[in-house]
Amino acid sequence: MRNIIVSYDKKRGIGAENDLLWLRDLPADLRHFREVTMGHAVIMGRKTYESIGKPLPGRQNIVISRQKYTVEGAIVVGSLEEAFSRVDPDKEVFVIGGGETFRSAVAYVDRIYATEVQETFSAAGIFFPQLDQATWKEVSREKHEADEKNKYGYDFVIYDRV
Ligand SMILES: NC(=O)c1ccc[n+]([C@@H]2O[C@H](COP(=O)([O-])OP(=O)(O)OC[C@H]3O[C@@H](n4cnc5c(N)ncnc54)[C@H](OP(=O)(O)O)[C@@H]3O)[C@@H](O)[C@H]2O)c1
């Protein structure tokens, strides 16, 4: 199965200056990302790879770049199509960002795991696209209030292609 996993704010902002907007303020989101993707394959754009700085442990890592680029511990390919074709046959795959990569990947995936952060970040400069409501249906939503560890409210939502 092909999936996207993404976190966005109330205006669908996902990032600023090659960093997450709520990086240390929502540990529950990092844990959710780890649990959902662990043991599977992850596809990411070169800029997102560089912002993470190392391959994600316990997952097959695939980086897309149009340049000659190498990463120890990851497969580097020149297109999204090639990235999907290199996924180990026993694994699900998750496209994990960033903005440019998500914009292309929406057309290829069946499911989107979205963390909808209940806050607007004015620093956001990179956005997740609006989903076509005729194509995507919300199939589950788990709401969480802010708490002592998580500074903002957030919903874990799953959208499936209809
Ligand atoms: N909130 C979230 O869920 C989330 C998740 C991940 C990232 N982010 C944020 O997103 C931002 C990064 O996003 P971004 O849009 O700047 O970059 P990106 O999508 O991570 O990476 C873009 C790069 O990937 C390569 N690429 C993209 N599409 C390609 C294609 N179709 N074929 C071949 N190569 C392709 C190119 O690399 P080359 O330039 O090497 O050719 C391109 O410059 C950061 O702020 C990061 O923190 C947020």
Describe this protein's structure.
The protein is of the alpha/beta class. The chain has helices at residues 27-37, 46-52, 80-85, 99-105, and strands spanning 2-8, 13-15, 41-45, 60-64, 75-77, 93-95, 111-117, 126-127, 136-144, 154-161. The strands form two sheets. Strands 5-4-3-6-1-7-10-9 form an eight-stranded mixed β-sheet. Strands 2-8 form a two-stranded antiparallel ribbon. The radius of gyration is 15 Å and the shape is globular. The two termini are 14 Å apart. Residues 6-7, 14-16, 18-20, 45-48, 51, 64-67, 69, 78-80, 96-101, 104, 126 line the site of NADP nicotinamide-adenine-dinucleotide phosphate. NADP nicotinamide-adenine-dinucleotide phosphate (NAP) binds at residues 6-7, 14-16, 18-20, 45-48, 51, 64-67, 69, 78-80, 96-101, 104, 126.
